Amino acid sequence: MTRDIGIKVPEPTENIEENDKKNPFNGTLSVRGKLFQGKVIKSKAKNTVVLEKESPTYYSKFKRYARSKNSIHAHVPSNIEVNEGDIVIAAECRPLSKSVSFVVVEVKE
């Protein structure tokens, strides 16, 4: 049994755990706020990945854009499979730990 999370992403159909509270699709985790696309650079921790988000920064003094990168920690629900190098979409949620406030909702590549 899956629920509507308010974002138009395909619902995962892989092995679903019923008691996963930190799952937006079949748990109680609500998704709100920002959405962003990032690349997985680390996936060694249990149920957590590190995403790299690239965004252009404008310097008005030089009238040019520069590339900037941020690394963000995100929770991976039990029914989504993520590997290093994947492009994923993450959504903001309540703080799940000291450094995790995002959850992966879709794997692009």
Report on this model:
There is one protein chain. This protein has 109 residues and is mostly beta strands. The protein has no helices and five strands. It has a five-stranded mixed barrel with strand order 1-2-3-5-4. It is elongated, with a radius of gyration of 15 Å.
Pick out its properties.
OB fold (Dihydrolipoamide Acetyltransferase, E2P), 5 strands, single chain, 5-stranded mixed beta barrel, mainly beta
Short recap of the structure:
It is built from no helices and 5 strands. With 109 residues, it is mainly β.
Residue stretches low in confidence (pLDDT < 50, at least 5 long) are none
Could you give the order of the helices and strands? EEEEE
* Largest beta-sheet details: 5 strands, mixed, barrel
Overall residue-averaged pLDDT value: 87
Strand content: over 45%
Please give the count of helices: 0
Going across the biggest sheet, name each strand in turn. Answer: 1-2-3-5-4
According to DSSP, the number of beta strands is 5
> What class, by secondary structure content?
mainly beta
Helix/strand layout:
Elements: E1 31-42, E2 48-59, E3 64-75, E4 87-93, E5 100-107
Parallel strand pairs: 3-5
Antiparallel strand pairs: 1-2, 1-4, 2-3, 4-5
